[in-house]
Amino acid sequence: MNYNKIEFFAAYGTKEQLPESNLPEICFAGRSNVGKSSLINKIVGKKALAKTGSKPGKTVTINFFSAENLYLVDLPGYGYAKISFEEKERFATLMEGYFTTNRNIRHGFALVDMRREPTDLDFSMFDLFRDYNIPFTVVLTKCDKLNKGEYQKNLAEIKEMLSCYVKADDIVPFSATKNIGVETIREIIEKNC
Fold first, then answer.
1. Helix ranges, the chain (H)
2. What structural domains does the chain harbor?
3. C-alpha–C-alpha distance, residues 72 and 64, integer Å
4. Are 74 and 43 in contact (CB under 8 A)?
5. DSSP H or E segment with residue 72
6. Is 163 exposed, middle or buried (0-12, 13-18, 19+ CB in 10 A)?
7. Rounded to the nearest 10 degrees, how much is the dihedral formed by the CA atoms of 119, 125, 126, 130?
8. pTM for the full predicted model
9. How many whole angstroms separate alpha carbon 75 and alpha carbon 120?
10. Which candidate, 176, 113, 181, places its Cα nearest to that of 141?
């Protein structure tokens, strides 16, 4: 796949706006500020394809990026406390609409900050993937922020915590700054498109 040809296609803020699913889709989900946009930018080799920000909650729409034969789909970040109840409800309805409209979702990436334990919201996301029979990979972001001992400890603990959701091989440490996990994620995308 030529990642340099991937470009922004469209953003949708309500489930009614979502287009028909006419190509395979690879989706990315995670808490606000977990690094979804940084991951997408790194795997496509572009600095600003997906918008990043210093404040959480930057992605408030479902953003589609078109490739040769599939879409990469950046889902809104969840868990950001400083948004209104109405906005949280809109997010929930939008996410429900995405997963319940017979989309051709080939694979999901659930991003979790490796420095922290997965939250209840992360487990809800894993459940969503499992309930809709969507194979998924857990990506442990910001792994470069841990020293060697912390890295090994956190990786072992997270693998144990998630053993009823995914196999150990389906957990990928990732760092946008150190290029860790980039090729593995590309291989998973290419295998599922």
1. 36-44, 85-99, 120-131, 148-161, 182-191
2. 3-191 (3.40.50.300)
3. 6
4. no
5. strand 71-74
6. exposed
7. 160
8. 0.91
9. 18
10. 113
Q: How far apart are CA 23 and CA 56, in angstroms?
A: 30
- Residue 50 corresponds to which tokens in the numbers above? 């997906």
Q: Which long-range contacts (C-beta less than 8 Å, at least 24 apart) are formed by 72-76?
A: 72/6, 72/25, 72/26, 72/27, 72/28, 72/40, 72/44, 72/189, 73/25, 73/26, 73/27, 73/28, 73/98, 73/105, 74/27, 74/28, 74/36, 74/37, 74/40, 74/50, 75/27, 75/28, 75/29, 75/36
Average pLDDT per block of 10 residues along the chain, 193 residues long: 87 89 94 90 84 54 91 85 66 84 94 95 93 96 97 97 95 96 96 87
User: Residues 90, 76: contact at Cβ < 8 Å?
Assistant: no
